[in-house]
Design goal:
elongated; 3 helices; single chain; mainly alpha
Amino acid sequence: MNKTLISLILIAVSGLATAEETPPAEGQPGWQQMFDKLKAIESRSHHGRIRILQEAEDCIQAAKTPPAYRACEQKEAQAREQLREELRPLHEALRKEAKPFRQSRPAEAPAPKL
């Protein structure tokens, strides 16, 4: 039961995060430019995460002791955080740029309560 509840919460929270970054409605002026910027940021994020996972896998395979393995895990966590910090200003700038579009869109029906 707890796993189901946690899954539902994660789905709801991820939906809220996505809604915040919703680009302008298709067809509005600037839509394609905003969409292209969003795709570029997400592509950069994906490539960064792939690189981090590949480096972590190489490190883990080379680890000979539990402390070496833990060091790999810590290095991976630091790399993920660094990538998040690197991308945060891009997401924030896009969010600010999209704000006028979001304000001009009609309000959507509220999501059902879980």
